[in-house]
Amino acid sequence: MQTMEMDMWVEKANVLIEALPYIKKFRGKIIVVKYGGSAMVDHDLKKSVVRDVALLKLVGFRPIIVHGGGKEITKWCKKVGIESEFVNGLRVTDKATMEVAEMVLNKVNKGLVSMMEKVGVHAVGISGKDGSVLRVQKKYSKGQDIGFVGEIKEVNTQLLNTLLDNELVPVICPIGSDDGYYSYNINADDAACAIATAMGAAKLAFLTDIEGVYRDPMDKTSLITRMNVPQAEEFIASGMAGGGMLPKLQNCIDAIKAGVARVHILDGRIEHSLLLEFFTDHGIGTAIIGDQEDGKDE
User: Fold this and answer.
1) Count of alpha carbons within 13 angstroms of residue 41, beta-carbon side
2) Deepest of 3, 52, 110, 223, by most Cβ within 10 A of its Cβ?
3) What distance in Å separates the CA atoms of residue 208 and residue 211, rounded to the nearest whole number?
4) Residues in a beta bridge with 91
5) pLDDT tens for residues 241-287?
6) Average pLDDT, the chain
7) Environment class of residue 121 by beta-carbon count within 10 Å: exposed (0-12), middle (13-18) or buried (19+)?
8) Helix or strand (DSSP H, E) at 125
9) Are 209 and 171 in contact (CB under 8 A)?
């Protein structure tokens, strides 16, 4: 029994040693985590993500959380008698829906802040309207008016840098304002991509409900663990990136081209997926890498 216990403790020590080069490389660097999918509605997964981000902060990373809340918005719209409508994957957002979305996203936001505080990390919840962090213009879907849906035209980094410099974790909900200071709903993936680019993030991680990018979605052995930009563009051109993966993969490419060194697509349904991807040699999702990367973090 003593030998088995000793082996267990040695294995734990080996895990810490494996994480060491990654901690050294990314200490002091900005990491943007787009938090969404099942990890937002399952309480245990929510705690797992919050603890992961807390650990990233405590070992010296500078994390920023950008979260969605689409499922909660749909639930609350139904409660107040508003029928949810989508065009090309985007929520049609009239004035009443915008009011519900802003209320729900702020509620989700403060809940995440409370969870961060409970694990001993100070966080500040904001929307993109605060400090004019996210300035938008009206977005159309293939020429169709879909209401108060915003396309980001500028990210004001002053407030975010102030929070990071004061050892606080920014938790951002994707509501922005236009030149007339009207509120607009923003796709959370787009918001995370724009923020990561503007902040010069070393990493951008998308927590999703899929394991990563597959060559064949029906073949679970065809997971692509690493892709560079030309490979990702070729994958899109081939037509294999269907459904919600297409815009997500395009966001990854755009972020890399704008200077983000590495973008990760992770399965947020796996406990501690962020730590497994960031701190282990093998990782668990798909990493999109820039030209300056050699495919390894070491």
Assistant:
1) 12
2) 52
3) 8
4) 86
5) 766 677 788 888 888 988 888 899 988 888 888 888 888 766 688 88
6) 87
7) buried
8) strand 123-127
9) no
Query: What's the burial of 149, exposed, middle or buried (CB within 10 Å: 0-12/13-18/19+)?
Result: buried
241/215 Cα distance (integer angstroms): 9
Q: For residue 39, how far is the Cα from the chain centroid?
A: 11
8 Å CB contact between 287 and 264: yes
Please state whether beta strands 175-177 and 169-173 pair in parallel, antiparallel, or not at all (unpaired).
unpaired
> Are the beta carbons of 111 and 171 closer than 8 angstroms?
no
Alpha-carbon distance of 141 to 188, in angstroms, equals 16
Whole-model pTM: value is 0.89
For residue 224, pLDDT over 90 is answered with no
Q: What is the pLDDT of residue 9?
A: 65
Rounded CA Rg of the chain: 19
Tokens, residue 14: 């080996």
C-beta of residue 270 within 8 angstroms of C-beta of residue 276: yes
